[in-house]
Protein 1
Amino acid sequence: MKVSYFPGCTLKTKAKELDAYARKCAEVLGVTLEEIEDWQCCGGVFSTSRDEVATKLSSVRALKAANDKEQPLVTVCSACHNVIKQTNHQVQTDAEFADKVNRYMAPEAPYSGETAVYHYLEMLRDLVGFDKIKEKVVNPQTGKKIAAYYGCLLLRPNKVMQMDDPENPSIIEDFIRAIGAQPVIYASRNECCGGYVTMESPELAKKKSNAVTGNAAAAGAEMMVTACPLCRYNLVKNGSEIPVVYFTELLAEALGVKEDTNA
Amino acid sequence: MHNKNQYLQEELLRTSGVNPKKCMRCGKCSATCPAYDEMEYHPHQFVNMVESGDIEPLLNSKSLYRCLSCFACIDRCPRGVEPAKLVEAVRLAAIRKQGANHLKADDVPAMLDDDIPQQALVSAFRKYAK
Amino acid sequence: MQRIGVFVCWCGSNIAGTVDVQAVSDALKNEPGVVFSTNYQYMCSQAGQNMIKDAVAEHKLTGIVVCSCSPRMHEATFRKTAAAAGINPYMVEIANIREQCSWVHKDMVTGTEKAIILGKAAVAKVNLNTPLTPGESPVTKRALVIGGGIAGIQTALDIADAGFPVDIVEKKPTIGGKMAQLDKTFPTLDCAACILTPKMVDVAQNDKIRIFSYSEVTDVKGFVGNFDVTIKKHARYVKEDICTGCGACTEKCPMKKVPNEFNLGMDNRSAIYIPFAQAVPKVATIDPNYCNMLKNGKCGVCSKVCAAGAIDYKQQDEFIEEKYGAIVVATGFNPISMDKFDEFAYNQSKDVITSLEFERLTNAAGPTAGKLLRPSDLKHPHTIVFVQCVGSRCDACAEKGKEYCSKICCMYTAKHAMLTRDKYPDTDVYVFYIDVRTPGKNFDEFYRRAVEEYGVHYIKGMVGKVTPEGDKLKVQASDLLANKQLHIDADLVVLAAAIEPDKSARPLATMLTASMDTNDFFTEAHPKLRPVESPTAGVFLSGACQGPKDIPETVSQAGAAASKVIGLLAKDKLTGNPCVASSNELMCNGCSTCERVCPYGAITYENKEFRMPDRTTAIRRIAVVNPAVCQGCGCCTVACPSGAMDLRGFANSQIIAEVDAICK
Amino acid sequence: MQVKEYKPLIVAFCCNWCSYAGADLAGNNRLSYPADVKIIRVPCSCRVNPMFVLRAFQRGADGVILCGCHPGDCHYTSGNYYTRRRMALLFSMLDYLGIEKERTRVEWVSAAEGAKFAATMNDFAEKVAALGENKRLEDLRCKR
């Protein structure tokens, strides 16, 4: 299976491991990630304003590129996924916006939101299947108590993201089970870490991050997984009691390809 | 009641797609807001104040830059009002004015550390500057 | 050819002031079929009516046109006159020359002109009238009540009181419904069981009432006065007539780990069980999903300990067919699932409960024997947060919850808060509200007492997130009046979940051809004036199946439904409206279009033998209208593609004749 | 020869439960509307067969209006919804045939809306009068 892949800027710099493991694991699972040529930064955060057009063009270009190859578009970073999926939704539902976008880009055929956008996790669940992952696991992560940290961007706004139940999600928990570990459910898994406001107000980010990690630790978690580099940064920087890793790293470990990547 | 901000109000409602009349004043948006304590005007007040045309205080408030875009108020609002979209619209109305950027490039180096991901930087620029 | 008499009324000067009545009666004299035409001061007076009667006799009239006030005013009067004069009452037509002519037009010329045209239209119609006789159908003097909660119980008792036999069908093993699960009732705080269980006993002892418990309605045929109903009685593996309800089996049953639905799963029961001490009928029921004997043939303890020999592992579902004259729907409500509202952590913590669960926690017969202990560690909670409007009053596009106000939550929450503070004054009680709605006798006084005398903290705002951490529930909420975000460490959180109609209601509505709204509440025949009747004749509504209701309202609606049923069953025969649809079987091609548009399910199909011109016979499917069910709207007549369907009294030919007369 | 003042001919179908009662109420309150409007009583607006409308135009009517209960208030629960759909189809077809949209109308008038009934009829009659005689569908063989 071949899919278009949008890594995003953070995965090329500060979160290289998130990217590297994602590629390696996809290979093992029989998925070819074809990186979109000349992709541009998604902008990190989606503007819900209907008159904000130019900042969304990079996402539409990526979507269009995937559509031209008739492939679904896969992202690993939660932020990229959120921006691209919301942009796609806006193209689908807001005719005025779609018209403006197509005038800007002047493509041969207008783009109207045909591309299916998957987060890597959704790809694992819907295109690969957690059962298949279970079969491919060589190092089951037995005994590890892992707390899934969804943050905001994977689940919300639910009307658009449609990944999982926004208040009681299970996709990462199912993933944790698939690799043989034990998920820890805690209430703050879909609360905000403080996001980009960490730049201006580190105190706010600290308060929010500590509430999340504290809640996970109190629930008995030994480790947290996330899909978002900014979440991980906020949680780690603000002194999480327990390690925070990318889900792809755990997947690589379970599939027995972690060392290769480091080499 | 005379509304001196009628034009701006209409613009905000149009670009955000929010209908503040749907609000039933339950305050769940402000109950769920993670940035509440750092805000001078809270999500439910954005809805109220835009509806009544009392928009200047919002334009000049740092509350605009404290919204985390976590969309919690959007998902949990029982009436589908989606306050975050209104915050976003007011924020754009503020920073689109000339020289009104909230974040200047010169300020950035002081905010950085070795680990901060690009994502934070581009997001902040999206949110704080035009 | 008809022999028509035209009678133009002056109505004093009401008509004669703007319409030249003499000109009208003269003009209509020459219309086809008219053999007599006159005018008179007050046609509706005794003298006027006698004039009509005399004219019928003298001129051998077969049809009557009265040019007078609105038919809504005196159509019935003149029909009676016609009947008294010996002609069919449906041979009378009224031309409305008062409300729709003389009163709205100012000058004599136009008024007279229009009155003549209206008269001509009426004459044209009468020419095509046919005598109509209302159909009659017998009434089975037995009522069916579906649902055995307080609504069904009260309806059944009231009907039985009037001397008519009633059957109650209840899907649970006992009657009693939601009210049996409640602790106290607002605003008087009397104990629910104390006022409900005597009524349950009354039902059991009333020889006019039969209870089919653990049963459901599986099929309904027929129509008002003549319903044929099939009731499925589920096998309870206990002979109902032999079991004494001693409870020995439930004590000895080795399978004790079955979640007890009566206590909403907060404790366990045995596989053979009696739902609660005052159950009616008080007989045991074996839960086939948990009984080892039924599942794998190993056990049989209950049959050994049963002194009466009531256990029957071989019992089968039983189908009972019965005839009823009226059906009352009393299927009640349930709290909605909290799955979509997990920001309140209902699925994450045992100490986040619904209000109905709170009722069981404070009930002396509940899992904690009436002590308010939180489910997780059985400790006394010191801080309790009540959240109102969970899932009620949601916008349709919010994709979760219900649009309506569940109506009962404000009052029961005030009750819970008050009772908690009364029994445990050391407990802090917070109630988060959007609005407090207390329209009811002594309701607002009750809520104010909770605040003023019992010190319940009412906070205008909503809870945004509940985070279980350690043994606390961290509640994040807004206080809108103080413009603050609150953080409360609570021990127990109680959610006032919205209520929704029971899931059995929709399939039942389909069986009954009774209409429902988008929320699956049954719709009433008229929202103000016929609130306990369904638009489907013979089907009545009682309790929360029609909309959220508290107990006093439910009981009064139950009584109202019963009185409607009694009114129906008291009749020996039902007289219908003769202006109903009928199908011309030679033209009908059996396409089912009419059946689909009929709001009353009045149209069925039958196969009928027809003699063909070549002396063979052919069987064709044709539509048949049940005149007792048809209400005469005429929708089917327009839908019918072959023109077979027509409406008596308002036939296609009659309306076209009116159009032609007006356009001439 | 005397030139007759042009008077439109308007056929109004009114449902028995709401609109006919609304028309009566207009009368009770002495609210005037043109005498050109002639009302035919039907049990429900859904009783009106498109054929009746066509017949009226064929016989020289200049406008046809249907009045029924407000959506949701139909005495027969759903009849007026059928009316709405059927007439939308019929009127668009008539429009295609050259019967101007202003000559046809469906209006919801409740039993309490006497004033609305009169206002509707005044407005409708005025619009139809402005269009002049309907010649498109009129069957000259039926000419008076």
Protein 2
Amino acid sequence: MELYGIFEWIYGLLADTGLPEPWLTFVVYLGLGVVIFGTLSVLALFLVWWERKIAGHIQQRFGPMRTGWHGWYQTIMDAVKLLQKEDIRVTTRDKAVFFWAPVVCFVAAYLAYVVIPFGENLWVADLNVGILYIIAVTTLTVISLLMAGWGSNNKYALLGGMRSAAQVVSYEVPMAVSILTIIVFSGSLSMVDIANSQQGNVIFNWFIFKPPFGIIAFLTYITAATAEANRTPFDIPEAEQELVAGYNVEYSGMKFAMFFLAEFVNLFTVSAIATTLFLGAWHGPLLPSWIWFLLKTFGMVLLLMLFRWTFPRLRVDQLMEFAWKFLVPLTFANLILAGWMKYAGWHW
Amino acid sequence: MGVLKDFFNLVKGMTITGKHLGRHAVTIQYPEQKMEMFERSRGVVVLLSDKETGELNCTMCMLCMRACPTAAIQIDAPRDENKKRVLNSFVIDNTLCCYCGLCEEACNFCAIKMAPLYEFSTWNKDDLVWDVKKLQEMGRDVPYEDTRKKKPAAADKPAAEKKPAAAANPGADAKPAAPEAKPAAPEAKPAAPEAKPAAPTEKPEETKDEAAPSKAEPSDDDKKGDV
Amino acid sequence: MTHDEIKSYIEKTFGDKLTLLDTGRCEPVFEVKLADWHDVARALRDDQTLQFDYLCNLGGTDTGERLEAHCQLASIKKSHRVDLKVVLDSGNPSLASVRDIWPAANWYEREMWELYGINIEGHDNLTRFLLPDDWDQGHPMRKNWDAPDFVRFPEFNA
Amino acid sequence: MSPLRTEEFTINMGPHHPSTHGVCRLILTMDGEKVLKVEPVIGYLHRSIEKICENRTYVQCVPLFDRFEYVTSMSCNMVFSLAVEKLAQIEVPERAEYLRVIMLELNRIASHLLFYGVTAMDIGALTPFLYGLRERELIVDLFEMTCGQRLTYNYIRPGGVSRDIPPEFIPKCREAVKIITEKMSDYEGLLNENPIWKVRNVGIGYLSAEDAIAWGVSGPVARASGVSYDIRKNDPYSIYDRFDFEIPVHHNGDCYDRYLQRLAEIKQSLRIVTQALDGLPEGEIQPKKKINAITFKPPAGEVYARVENSRGELGTYVVSDGTNKPLRVKMRGGSYNQLQALPIMIKDCLIADLVAIFASLDVIMPEVDR
């Protein structure tokens, strides 16, 4: 069943009410915003639970088991608990910065979903600079982390904030360049166009299977995306064993929950982008398009979770070294070669 | 090729974790499922009762109290006019207990045991100070092997019937640990001759050793110590 | 080297600086004279036959009548061991630091200073260590130490 | 243009920090991420066990030694028992010696498995911790089956051991040995050649052999620096001279070698356990004249006993004045010296390296503070 039909039907109902034009668009997009926000928040809660289950099973334990079937609403209860908790504010904080950091983090995490296509005809807006927009807004997260690190007035938090700034700025480059390789293939910056150029029920249309550039771009993207999402082996901003909790060491209650949820929304974002760019977006046989999209995205999420529960953490200077001395040259070489191939007219 | 080798090693690690993803958990869900405790597990200290009569096995010889390295056991059993010990109180402070099991080893009468029980948490610290009733109740269902020397009750049935009080509880004797003082209670005389030869043959040197301090007590320099 | 060889060698080399207190139950034990402690320690390390390069343990003892310092040395290269003992001056217990010989002695000496009140000459960092920073109730490992508000281990009078 | 002015700052790591393994406090002087100076502050776990021992009888001291170095309580029991046996010249029965060796080596394996997990966790890999503990559980079960406790065993006593093993011990123990031998490939596969693991550990926290000896560092840390010294071989106690095992030695003296060293030691310990199980004789487990918990009085004298623990030399100095209570008990643990030597290993290290170094030393705080 295609979800698009439902949205079209609701839009039809709204249009029939005879709302004047600017208001109609406003109401429609407001509604879409609420739907996306709600879906993603639930999804993030689900991802937290899923991560805990997967971690549990990798480590041969159960993970959450108490609340519902296999603890399915454990994270909801956690969220409720966090809502009730006292919001501890250090007296020496920078008040405005401390307050706004989680908000910025939370908002920045959701911004990318404006252009991500969840399925056939299932997107909020098809910007013609879609992928550029995503690169721009996902970087906003780093500002919030820096704000949190600074505003907490805590040495551990500041170290965490500085680490995250250094890390995200470094990994932005290889990530953008590996995305550029895909743009060379597709010839468009629009997410929808990129998705559509992988059409066809044979998986060999997917950009990941454009050897060798596609697979290299995929691997570099995944590496950089893990760093963008602050996950092990690149989770140095919060590095529990070194910086206690890094930038969010002074946060508690709902503010902490916002950071926490944003982290998982980011996880889903990078997986969704990877799906759209490399894994043929929503294209797939038999099942509805949005189910294909979710399946592929969750596959990616699973991969990232496997990273997290297998690998040790890199050190901050090694992380920079890896980005600048290995990933950046590799992605640039990949991009140049791919562009040259394209120019030479070699089709895959 | 170093990069490829590193990549291969990363994938190898992920196959190991991925392999475990499908395996069964080795942990258990605690309150519903419980681990089977080993018979020797040293949990909480309990007082054991005689399997037949239900009386406490304790003879108030104080050996456990003296063996305890943290002074968790407090026994108050003064002698009455017949030089018999009367149990006033037997208190174990579980907040002090360090679960070393020395009391169990010191006891010659299977009276005290570290039972494989572990669920005794409370909200109140005072509830962890157990008196003799609570200790006996906790020890009610604890299985144990009765290695005591044959008591008059078991050895001589008619005698036990005649004088149940003395037979069932030989611990009421003045110096139960000292073999020569065994049949101290004059009423128990008919049963005693059987018990007397049995006692020294079983654990002669140990019993003597254990008994020694109770006589040579004042020489022991139990000076002040801190806990 | 066997125990007997060590005994005879050390007695021969150091002569009157130390005396053998042999219980025959463990490694050879020597009592070193307080004044010669540092020299003997250095010589024991530097002697090519003995080469006691490894400090096992260093600490104080309060026998009730006097304060002693004890020291266990081992040789990694030669695999042998010796025990040393120094009887300290009870009025003003003080011992030369052997930190310059074995850096490992650092914390052991701080501990001696703190818990026994043995002054370590030549140690530059005698500060609170195992005890709280504001501790002012004396040297707790001494036998005559007594502090208020302590729960006593009860005396048993059967 | 004048150079950019930077400022050193002090950061307080611990006593409640996730990677200080208990309550150690490190005062770090840092320049950005770089650690310039580290000053360990100890004493948060000081329970004055040495003083308490002076007021307890010899057998009552054994449970206190359990709490001295709780990860390898068997070694602590062993070292005190050795000291008392030396003092009182007690002959230990053959079976008891074999049981002691089995327990000591099993405990060494358990401790190294814990190290494997904890050090991986400090470097960010969370899963190995659970894998290490999973196999440790097998060993802990064996201990519980034998002596009733999982951590503070109070098993090895002056004169022998407290109880004989139950009949199901030997098959269970053989099975555990087999499982751990199999799982070693998992442990090694997860970390040994992992490029992230190597880059975090190789060349970090270098300690030279000379420094190791001078600072009194012993055990796996010293052997990873190339000091081939193991008390089991060089100053044998109990019956270790009867078994065929090697002392693995690594030479780079960095965190990675300390890690490899411990994995190699697990394998050797498994060998010893197998041999001891094969050679386990029948017989008594306590000497003929049993040691009474209250009245036992060794003759006056002083003795220093030491055993090879999973953290280095574990020693105890016991002075007896002929009464039933020791006059002085001094405990010496390997962690004490290793923590002491921490400041000389931090050359050019970042805060993340400091965590790795601290983990590789396998410091256990009760052993330091006592």
